Amino acid sequence: MTTLRRLDALREVPRDAWNALVGDGSPFLEWDWLSALEESGAVDPEGGWLPQHLTVWEGDRLVGACPTYLKGNSQGEFVFDHHWASAAHRARLRYYPKLLVAVPFTPVTGQRFLAAPGMHRRVTGILAAALEGLCDGKQVSSAHVNFCPTDDRSALAARGWLLRTAYQYHWLNHGFSTFDDYLESLRSKRRNQTRREQSALAEQGVTIEALVGDAIPESVFAVMFRLYRHTVDNNPWGNRYLNERFFDLVRERFRDRLCFIVARRRDRIIAGTFNVQKAGVLYGRYWGAFEPLRNLHFNVCYYAAIAHCIAHGLRRFEPGAGGEFKQLRGFDATETASMHWIGDVRLRAAIADHLEKERAHVAAEVDWLGEHTALRRDRDDES
What we know:
Blueprint: E1 2-7, H1 15-22, H2 31-39, E2 49-51, E3 53-58, E4 61-66, E5 68-71, H3 82-90, E6 98-101, E7 114-115, H4 120-134, E8 142-145, H5 150-157, E9 162-172, H6 179-185, H7 188-202, E10 206-212, H8 218-233, H9 244-253, E11 258-265, E12 268-278, E13 281-289, H10 296-312, E14 316-318, E15 332-342, H11 345-371
Parallel strand pairs: 6-8, 13-14
Antiparallel strand pairs: 1-3, 2-5, 3-4, 4-7, 5-6, 8-15, 9-14, 9-15, 10-11, 11-12, 12-13
């Protein structure tokens, strides 16, 4: 017998059962990451995140799930719908709370409807119907599935969900054996700029290294949190979503997925990035610096990460949202997608019209960026 259960916390699901559904998928969907967000208090109702995870069971066996939150605001989502909320307010419609299927504070594409092998279509139908049923347009205005892959996107589109597109900059490893191979893939102007930025930082006495898993010294975790806190607190647009307890929990539970890149000057860590890696992909999450040295950001966040990917055969590097300067360093625009179910017919029609125009604009931008890539036109992508 198949049953649907709504759970108030991830701890109500056995860790191994949840992770079996994730498999080789996004590391941010794993029980250890999501539970650390909840148990640390980074995700909680006061911050606008109320866990309402939907799960599908056959008897006592977990066969499907999606990380779901009842949202009281639109913070920490990276798919911005504030103008939708404003339009609803002007029309005297209630926009919050809404339902969100996503990984909090994490703009990374990954499976959103988790299912046991051979059951994805059936499970997706059950979960999508449940989300739609909760959106009466009055108590819960809408449901949103952010940063979803092609199969989730197609299944929801067939049910009448609205598609929204955007793009990020991703780096692909075209079979590079050395960092110099990567440099040779760039146009001469960009290649020379990269070399200048690397040598300028080295002349300031800065060294950079990547630390992975058990090779990360215990002391570095506390430094990484201070870097995160320092940078967020000194950014007028920053939001300190994470706390020290979260960093402690990922140290205990998630260490094998972590890759910290740290920059030192006179044996003192002055900057670093918090990255996650799995299944041949490196994901950049948090950057911080104590000293505002010129070119420090590019070297720590991008060049050292690319060198790490090449050295370890990682095929892709996703450094996160934003940053047009990434394109100048060989990161190309990659489309992302989210799907939306709007309960109110009038609001749905207005948003559908807006999204049609927005998708055309995004497609044109991606095409333009592809024409103006920093990569050489004569490179052999199949090498």
